[in-house]
Write a structure and sequence with these properties.
heterodimer; A: 341 residues; alpha/beta; Rossmann fold; 2 domains; 6-stranded parallel sheet; B: 330 residues; mainly alpha; ABC transporter involved in vitamin B12 uptake, BtuC; two-stranded antiparallel ribbon; 4 strands; 74% helix
């Protein structure tokens, strides 16, 4: 109790210090954010976090959706530069396409914060650690399996091999779970496309071939829940099953956790916090501060109980608990990067 | 089971030559299906299990439901590219209405009405504004893909928790999944309608020769309009199953669904030029595509092949259709 109180005081003090530092800085008047795909729940929450932080700091935030079109992203960047925004935040549509944007922004003297994906020539990137997120969820899954599951751990990974970030998550999960359950076996390694209908379809086929599975891991919530729905459609019992989701970008995982069903762990990546941190990085860049190349945004493995500490959830909407999320500490660097694959 | 006019005794008497088999598409499809089943059983022992057969039928159900409507539409010489986008939008509408009203019936009716409404819109654009159906329904697809994000920015979650709703997609009657029963019933209804009713004969007449049909007192526009609406309503049925299956209305679902449906119908021997097609062929086309999908997953091949295969099938089916048309014309 004494220790946790001390931790809380330290966290509170560091948060106050961070806010005070930010408030003491000059703040940019306008920040332009070019999001790669605003219709995705993840990015809606990133934008939400950015808007919250911008409102706190009195910054005008303008958002343009590139809608997965690099040409649109380039023209949005030109538009922002022509209108003299103070800082740009960009989630690159693709890594190569964003290089000329960075070059032109540098020439125009507009600082750029990248979100999500690294690009050659960048100054700073705000992103989570994908491998660490999967690894930590894997460790928790191993502990949960030890206590609650019968028989050896047999995993179905509903993955997305196309992207290095999601491969890192899956690899991290398997490495993490094996720290607790060394014999854990990866039975199905699937390409669920990152969307629920494809995830459901490939999972259904895999489960028809071999349903002797007791852990489903999804690289995002759509994948995890697509796998779970395939399990249900196959009429399989849920009493010896653990589902682990990743992302926590929408309401789906909170709904499923509220049922106290097999979704017992969620590797939450707090998109709102990513947006919040990106805005703070934009302010720091505006003030000419030296920033690390990779600013890590924290992640945390949630259970049905702890999920409600981080999110107020009334069944139809969710509200992030900033105080609790800002207490989370992020590592200085990731355990593994895409270059390690 | 065929209603087509090109199965004359002369053609049947051509024997078992490869060309003859290609022209008798249903025999060709049955042989192809058998080869696939035997080949996959040998390559992957887990393919030939009751569980996998059930999974394949389950995955085929939604495609078949829309494909029977698409068969009728293609027989009238029209096509609907918007079915995938409509499927996603309608799934959101179904879930939203059930959430709002706590009524399963109203939710399902809303889905059917939405799908039917999209079909009506497509039908009116094609028959009244005289826009080519390929172009018109691509435009509708774009409207729906953008419109669904005005309707909801994120997946519509299940807030009603009505038990019966989840059973629509995940329930079983004996060993048979509910969606398979729904698809089978609809296939039988459309088989009977196309083969044994006046409406069916009119559909074929309009597709075969619209001028002759008009001279006979038929209104090709009305029949085409009805075919669009019916296809739309079937999209509503599939959307209800999709919402139940995913336990959410998913605005991003259904991408590429239209191509799988059209590939299956064309593979089944329905002509893109109208006037020719069978429900039996469509069933075989759906099963072949879904068995290939299943095989790709079970054999752990690159799943991008699942997208490539329907594309190849469309080209192959169009080539065979041209071949048959050339023979008929010649």
């Amino acid at each position: 109790m004494h220790k946790s109180m001390k931790t809380l005081l330290i966290a509170a003090a560091s948060t106050v210090a961070m806010v005070a530092t930010t408030m003491a800085q000059e703040t940019p008047k306008t920040v332009g954010y070019i999001v790669n795909y605003a219709t995705h729940e993840w990015y809606q929450n990133v934008i939400g976090g950015m808007q919250d932080r911008a409102a706190e700091l009195g910054i005008e935030l303008e958002v343009i959706d590139a809608n997965l079109d690099i040409a649109k992203q380039v023209s949005a960047a030109e538009d922002f530069m022509a209108r003299n925004v103070d800082v740009m935040i960009i989630t690159p549509v693709n890594e190569e396409g964003a290089v000329p944007i960075l070059r032109r922004a540098k020439a125009a003297g507009v600082p750029v914060v990248l979100e999500g994906n690294p690009v050659v020539g960048m100054d700073t990137l705000v992103a989570i650690c994908d491998y660490d997120t999967g690894y930590n969820a894997g460790v928790e899954a191993g502990k949960w399996a030890k206590e609650n599951l019968e028989g050896p751990v047999r995993v179905m990974n509903v993955g997305l091999p196309l992207l290095s970030a999601t491969v890192l998550r899956s690899n991290g999960f398997m490495d993490g779970i094996r720290t607790e359950m060394p014999d854990a076996e990866l039975v199905h390694d699937l390409d669920g496309g990152g969307n629920p209908d494809r995830a459901q379809e490939v999972s259904a086929a895999a489960l028809a071939a071999d349903s002797d599975i007791n852990v489903i891991y999804g690289i995002n919530d759509s994948s995890a829940l697509g796998g779970l729905q395939a399990w249900r459609a196959a009429g399989l019992p849920e009493d010896n099953l653990l589902v682990v989701g990743t992302g926590g970008e929408g309401l789906a995982f909170l709904n499923e956790m509220a049922k106290d069903g097999p979704l017992q762990l969620e590797a939450a990546m707090f998109p709102e916090k990513v947006g919040f941190t990106s805005m703070d990085a934009a302010v720091a860049m505006f003030n000419g501060e030296d920033l690390p190349e990779h600013i890590v945004s924290p992640t945390h493995t949630l259970t049905p109980e702890t999920a409600l500490e981080f999110y107020d959830f009334d069944g139809e909407s969710r509200q992030i608990n900033w105080e609790r999320v800002n207490e989370l500490e992020a590592p200085d660097q990731c355990m593994k990067y895409a270059s390690d694959l | 089971m065929s209603v087509t006019s090109d199965q004359s005794p002369t053609r049947q008497a051509r024997g078992l030559s490869l060309g003859g088999l290609l022209r008798n598409e249903q025999i060709f499809l049955i042989i192809l299906l058998a080869v696939l089943i035997v080949g996959l059983s040998l390559a992957a022992p887990r393919f030939m299990t009751a569980e996998n057969a059930t999974a394949i039928l389950h995955q085929s159900a939604m495609v078949l439901i829309v494909a029977v409507g698409m068969t009728m539409l293609l027989i009238t010489a029209e096509v609907d590219i918007s079915v995938g986008a409509s499927l996603a939008f309608a799934s959101c509408v179904v879930m939203d209405v059930i959430n709002t009203t706590s009524s399963l019936t109203l939710g399902i009716l809303a889905g059917l009405a939405f799908g039917g409404g999209v079909g009506l819109f497509n039908g009116l654009v094609v028959t009244r504004l005289k826009v080519n159906s390929l172009i018109a329904t691509i435009a509708t697809m774009m409207i729906l893909q953008g419109g669904v994000f005005l309707y909801t920015r994120e997946a519509v979650q299940n807030h009603h928790q009505i038990e019966a709703f989840s059973l629509i997609a995940t329930g079983y009657v004996g060993p048979v999944p509910v969606p398979v029963i729904i698809a089978a019933l609809l296939a039988v209804v459309f088989y009977v309608m196309l083969n044994y009713t006046l409406i069916g004969r009119r559909v074929f007449a309009v597709g075969s020769n619209p001028k002759a049909a008009r001279l006979s007192g038929l209104s090709p526009e009305t029949i085409k309009l009805v075919a669009f609406v019916v296809t739309g309503i079937l999209v509503g049925v599939a959307a209800t199953i999709l919402a139940s299956l995913l336990n959410a209305g998913q605005p991003t679902a259904g991408r590429g669904f239209e191509l799988i449906v059209i590939a299956a119908v064309l593979l089944g021997g329905t002509s893109l030029f109208g006037g020719k097609g069978t429900i039996a062929g469509t069933i075989l086309g759906v099963l072949i595509l879904k068995i290939i999908d299943n095989g790709i997953i079970i054999l752990r091949w690159n799943q991008d092949l699942q997208i490539i295969v329907p594309g190849v099938v469309i080209i192959l089916a169009m080539f065979l259709d041209q071949l048959r048309k050339g023979r008929t014309d010649g």
